[in-house]
Amino acid sequence: MIEKNCPNCGNPFHGRSNRTYCSQSCKSAINNFRVAERDKDANIATQKVKANRRILMTLYNLYGNMELPPMVIDKTKLDKTWSSRVNLKEKKQLFLDLCLTKLENGNYLIEKFKNE
Ligand SMILES: [Zn+2]
Among 28, 50, 64, 115, fewest CB within 10 Å belongs to which? Predict the structure, then answer.
C-alpha cells in the first residue's frame, strides 16, 4: 500500500501500486471525459464532411453529371481535407453519398450514389 494523489480529484489515497484513482467514480469521471473528447473530434469531422457534402449537393443540383472546371470547385468553400473516403489512385473522394472525381483533363465530376 502506497500513498498517491488521485489525478481526478487530487485527494490523497492509499492503494496498491497499480491503482490510479481514489474511487470508482473518479475513474469513471476521467473515462467519461476521454470518451466525450474523442466523440467531440469525431463530431467535428462528421460536421465538416456533411458541410462538404452540402456544397457538392448544391453543385450537383445545378450541374448534374456535367464536368466542372476546377475554378467552379475552387470558388466554393469545399475543404477537400475532409471526406468520408479517399481513393488516391482513381483521384476520387467520397462525401457520404456524393463522389468527387478529378478527371485526366483536370476537370471534376460529381456523382451521386443511389440510396439502397
Ligand atoms: Zn479521486
Answer: 115
The CA distance from 112 to 50, in Å, is 14
- Classify the C-alpha dihedral 39-41-43-45 as positive or negative: negative
Q: What is the largest CA-CA distance in the chain?
A: 72
pLDDT tens profile 54-91:
999 999 999 999 999 999 999 999 999 999 999 999 99
Residue 42 CA to ligand 1 center (angstroms) comes to 28
Q: What is the pTM of this model?
A: 0.71
Report d(CA 38, CA 15) in Å as an integer. 29
CA dist 64 and 56 (Å) reads: 10
Distances (CA, A) of 40 to 48, 80, 100: 12, 20, 27
62 alpha carbon – ligand 1 mean position (Å):
57
The alpha carbon of 10 and the centre of ligand 1 are apart by a number of angstroms equal to: 6
SS3 36: helix
